Here is the input.
Amino acid sequence: MSAPNEPQSFTDPAYWKNFFAKRKSPFEWYGDYNSLSKVIDKYLKPSDSFLQLGCGNSELATQLYDNGFHNIHSIDVEPSVIADQIRKNKERPGMLFSTGDAANLTMADGSHTVVIDKGTLDALLPPSASEADKATVTKMFDEVHRVLASGGRYMIVTLAQPHITEFWIDHFFPLKQYILRVQKIENKASGFPMPVFCFIATKMRAPMPNPLPLEVLRSSAIRTDRIGDTDDLKDAIKAEQELSQFIYLCSKKLDVEVSIDFHGEDPALGPRYRICVVDRPEKTKIESFAAFVVPIGRDAEWLFASPKGRKALSSQCGRDRLVIVFLNRNQHYEKEMDEVKSDIGHFVGMLDARNSDTGNYEILSVGGVDVKRTISSGRSEINGGWSVEEVTVDERQYRRLVFLNTMNLIQSEAYLKISKKKQTVIDLDQLACDFHRMMIGSLALNHLQPLAKIDTRCRMAVLGLGGGLLAAYLLRNFKKARVTAVELDPEVSKIANSHFSFPHSDARVQVIIQDALVHLQEVAGKPEEEKYDVIFVDVSGTQNAALQCPPPAFLTPEALSNMKNSLKEQGMLSLNLVTRDSELGKSIKKDIAEYFPTLYTVLSCEDVNEVVVGLKAPKNSLKAVVPQKLMNTVRKDLGSHNEVVAAVSNIRLVD
Here is the structure.
């Protein structure tokens, strides 16, 4: 017989009479003694006097007795169940079973040092509980308080649904007479994946002047964590429930990547780890398994930060399942990689879906816990926290501007080089960002042919300065170009000048601190000679949104119209588009084509970045584009020549 269809049936004695009549075998929805043994060993003693509320046909009392706990009194509302329990335990002297109502106990005040409730609270308080149901539970809690001795423990085994957790906390916490503890248990007896918790309320001799502690023992934790307030306790329970669901989800082959945040002791610091699980799609079952720890400073790279990159990493590691572990910059890892491995070892082992119980697997990495060198950091009123960092990847040095409030998004990336004076400087002649090289490659479609001629006169706008690397590259590689960089955040402009050697004193560059959409509106109304030959849209949006670049405001009819009208008659738009939704990408390109009838795209070899190139001229007025011919026009002295040529080869007409 299964669980009732209606929550109210849980509180109906007739339901349970029918249930136990049809199900003769012991029923352990919430786990047996083995599941509960860690909690029992920690909080209960053989000398304790037990009262079990709503015993049903569970064998918990029998198992407790056989493990040395002999003073046990169990009650239930169903007489036939009590009769069966008496019959099965007749050879266990001292065990007592009687018909009784948990809301109307007959025991004396302070007569028991332990009260156990395994599922009874959940049965009496369904999600749609009536006021009568709530009154019954309140009366049960009051009765438990009465019969529980000072120092006694009220242990509830529960699924900890939000309404249950809230009702328990709201009743016992204000009394200031109970230490409330929560511990998740591994329920292997029931055969279903719902996470089960133990709520332990320890009774003090008298109410205290201040609220008593709240504590939680998290999955795989060695010690109990003290919780700041009741909301934090509820959040901790919810996080453990999500963790259980995640582990269950990963118990079989995954079709898509899944991820979860793994929290530590201090919620204010954010997640201690972020876990991504990647299964190789060509495999039908998991036969090889490993974990990979991504060092701080490498976390925003394509190989680790994008789903496509993580798939490539899984293939490189040669594992059917790879658990990728991201660290948190706000957390402290005292013993470097050894501590991380110790921290994650048990949890990662639970994600091993191989059909073996060896528990042996490798934890891989590409360095220590933190491989970055922080040059500077601060906080912007617009973009939040930022950090300028240096890392070495494959023996090449990089300097990066990282925004810390968007999953550590790399906003700008530059190569470092050794100058003639043997100093480490920013290499402004080369482009480290793939999509910047794609944007430069898109210039092969411009009628002025700037990739072929170093002295091409043209007016270019860069919307979104970042570290200033794209604008600086344009100035150094196109000697007669005039560049206007538009940046909303004045702090970003200061960072570009101070840490990325932006050539702000060059007479050919103008930096405007302004909303780029306002700037476009202003330029759209100017004479032809004051408009642009090329507009580069390099503006980041929300990292976790379906559309990451540009922000949606840059794709409205008004914004696209202003882009078109800010360009000269033969002008060109080059827009960095990042979305993991292919249908959304198609829709966006269709919208852009309403204003730019000739549309091309430059595809990335790596991530989901693509550069959308819009020309104002109609399709039938232009010659057919042959990428091979365009590649041959790229001059040899151009910075990042080979990468730009590769980008040109990936130019495609959008139908």
Q: What stands out?
A: The chain has 19 helices and 28 strands.
